[in-house]
Here is the input.
Amino acid sequence: MSSVLYDTPGPKARARNVVYTVVFLVLMALAGWWVIGTLADKKQLDADKWTPFLTGEVWTTFLLPGLGETLKAGLIAMVIALPLGALFGIGRLSDHAWVRVPVGTVVEFFRAIPVLILMVFGSALFVRFTDIDSEVRPLYACITGLVLYNASVIAEIVRAGILSLPKGQGEAAKALGMRKSQIMTYVLIPQAVTAMLPALISQLVVILKDTAIAGAILGFAELLSTSRQISANYSNTIPTLIVIGLLYVALNFALTGFASWLEGRLRRAKKGGGGNAAAVSAATVPGGDGAVAGAPLIPAQGDGADAVAKE
Here is the structure.
């Protein structure tokens, strides 16, 4: 079956693909064997290095509190960055220059600055202009940096998702008498969410992982920072980092799994809903300009009306 991106591989191409796959798997196996052998030579696979993770003390004293701080910072940043980024993205599409230009400047500015610098400056601002306790100041600085950077990135995701929709969607809704705010709220954004979801979830994963930056720079007691305390107590740096890495993998896998489930649910709901999105939305928009259920917006006469209705 051909694709717009590539032709269907023939017998020789399929044979080459099989050879490449086998070679890659062999190389991966050799690399894994070398890593395991090196760890064994350095005594990093000895039982005494891994035994602490089988007891509850390491988990209750270090890992679970660090995991809780990571989730707290990540979730708060997500809750703030998502709606803020959506507002910025919609603002960049505004017809009014006094809205579009300032919002675009803010988005481009914070998107160009590394999140590390934003966290450091946020911490300095909290020290100078607020009386926030020093124990929670790293959390505030971490959330501030994550929100400013990721809201700007999410704004671009939202803008690109809305612009990816066919122009006919907005034009059809406008022909039904809907205002631009109603078109955006009831027609464009609901359809763009499905297209934006993979990129949005990838950005949420970035938010969760970037909490480790605050742990390294600001002393925030998140998950990765606990590795120093665990390795200092048990002299097992490599096993500690491996366990923490697996915890990050589990968190992000759960997040992406939830996103995949949600995306599939949205796609099934869209297929099962049927009908033109603009027409359905117009019939349910409260206070729309003529877009009231039961009000004939297009004269029902002639072949032209039938054609419009079919579209």
